[in-house]
């Protein structure tokens, strides 16, 4: 059974990183791919095609993971992180500009 003895055994130094990782996982569940997969299955297909939607999502997940592993091996984590950072910084500004101009 889970208790505070686990946190006491790792010490106070690791308490903040431990809680941070737990909160990241909780946040991931609310906004991550699991939510999108659930919404895709409930909205995208009828009830009789739920198996087909699960298979499609699984195949896309495996393919995306394979491409990601290959990219990390070839390009490197740091370059991919900096590339995604630039895209995440640029995209909201681009969206605002498009909304103002239209």
From TrEMBL:
- Superkingdom assignment: Eukaryota
Keyword match Signal: no
User: Does the record bear Transmembrane in its keywords?
Assistant: yes
Kindly state which keywords UniProt assigns to this record, in alphabetical order. Answer: Membrane, Transmembrane, Transmembrane helix, Transport
The family database entries (Pfam families) matched by this protein are listed as: Sugar_tr (PF00083)
What are the subcellular locations of this protein? Membrane
Q: Which residues cross the membrane?
A: 12-31, 51-72
**UniProt cross-references to PANTHER family, sorted A to Z:** OS07G0206600 PROTEIN, SOLUTE CARRIER FAMILY 2, FACILITATED GLUCOSE TRANSPORTER
Task: Indicate the family of this protein.
Answer: Belongs to the major facilitator superfamily. Sugar transporter (TC 2.A.1.1) family.
Q: What's the protein here called?
A: Major facilitator superfamily (MFS) profile domain-containing protein
